[in-house]
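Readers of this paper often ask what the protein records in our data store actually look like. The remainder of this section carries one protein's record, kept here as part of the documentation.

:::
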Amino acid sequence: MPEASKHSATRRRHGQEGPTEKMREYLEVIYYLSARNEPVIGARLAEWMNVTPPTVTNIVQRMEDQGYIARDGRGEIKFTDEGFAMAEAMVKRHRVLERFLVDVMGIPWHKIHEEAVRLEHSLSPLMEERIASLVGQSTTCPHGNPIPGSGVGYVGNLRLDRAEPGSQFRLRRIVEEAEEDSELMRYLQNAGLTPGASFEVTDQSPSYGVTLRTGQQTITLPPQIAGALWGELA
C-alpha cells in the first residue's frame, strides 16, 4: 500500500477524518514557504503564526504522526505526497475564491482574503467547480500570487526594499503574510500599489524604508511593508 494510503487508512481506523482547522492553517503556510524556496523550520512557522515555538512543535508532531509532513535530519519540514496534495488544493481554492470575490462579486480588494477564509472550508466540490468556471483562465489571485494548476509560478523576484534608487519598479505580487492585514491592504489599494502598478524608486534606506514616486504623489514605505512587495525592474 502506498505511504499516503497507509496513513489514510490509519486515520480512518482511529476515527480521524482529516486535519483539524489549525493543521490546515499550518499546511497552507508550509505550502507558501516551500513554494518560495524558503526553509520551513519551526521558528519560521512560529513567527508567521504568531505563536510560541512549543505550540508549533506540538502541532507539527501531530501533523507528522498523521502523515502530512516529515522532518529531515536538520529539522526542516517537508510535505508527504498526501500533505502536498491537500495543501495545494486548499491554496487553489483560496486563490480562486479571492479572484471570484473581486471579479464577479465586486468585493473590495482589501477584504477578499478574510472573506475567502470564511468561505473556503464550506465549499462543496460542485460549488468550487462552478466558481472556478466563473473566473475563467485566471492564473493569479488578485494579490498576484499564482493559482496552483494554472501553469504559472511566482513572478517578480526582486523585493522593493532591494531596488536601487532611480530604478523603475513594476509590482507583481504581495506576499501572503501581508494579505492577512486588511488595513495594510486598504492602504496599498488607496495608494495604487497593487499588482501591475509601476513607479520610480527615489530613495532607499534599511532604517526608514523606501521612497517612491507614483503619478503626482511621493510615498515612503517602512522596511517591513516594502519587503512584502515583490516585482521586477520595469
